[in-house]
Design goal:
Length: 150
């Protein structure tokens, strides 16, 4: 005869696992949507220099593996100005203190963009104190890009 208490404990664990799986799937969907929004903002903000042939914005695929959501694919954006490249690379959705993080890497500087958990807006994390953030505007984006390019 089986142990009903043991079976009950396993059933409860299975229920929690299924709930976590659904929550993670929703979070991953929101994360992908957030990344899509960021990509559209960058395209809009760079529209004029792209049209004038000053720089180029390309995308490529990257796989991310996170324990709670598994392996998934995202876009990485490369802003090219001559031989210089600034990369906007999604890192993860499960990060401490935010809904997700994108690292900006250029030849002269690097920055961290985060998706704010409470507001859902993109911000730049202060390098000296990541708890302090500045909302990502067109002007801040331009400053980040110019600083990263050097």
């Amino acid at each position: 005869m089986g142990d009903p208490k043991f079976t009950e404990l396993l059933a409860e664990k299975k229920k929690r696992e299924q709930h976590l799986s659904m929550t993670s799937k929703r979070r991953l969907g929101r994360w992908r949507m957030s990344l899509g929004e960021l990509g559209m903002k960058m395209r809009n903000w760079l529209d004029d220099p792209i049209k004038k042939g000053v720089l180029e914005l390309t995308t490529r695929k990257k796989q991310i593996a996170e324990e709670l959501v598994g392996t998934y694919e995202v876009n990485v954006w490369d802003v090219k100005l001559g031989s210089k490249v600034v990369t906007f690379e999604p890192i993860a959705t499960y990060v401490i203190g935010a809904f997700g993080r994108v690292d900006v890497k250029g030849p002269a500087a690097g920055f961290r963009l985060i998706r704010e958990s409470d507001t859902g807006h993109w911000s730049m994390a202060d390098p000296s104190d990541p708890r302090r953030t500045t909302p990502l505007t067109k002007e801040l984006f331009q400053e980040i890009l110019l600083s990263a390019l050097g």
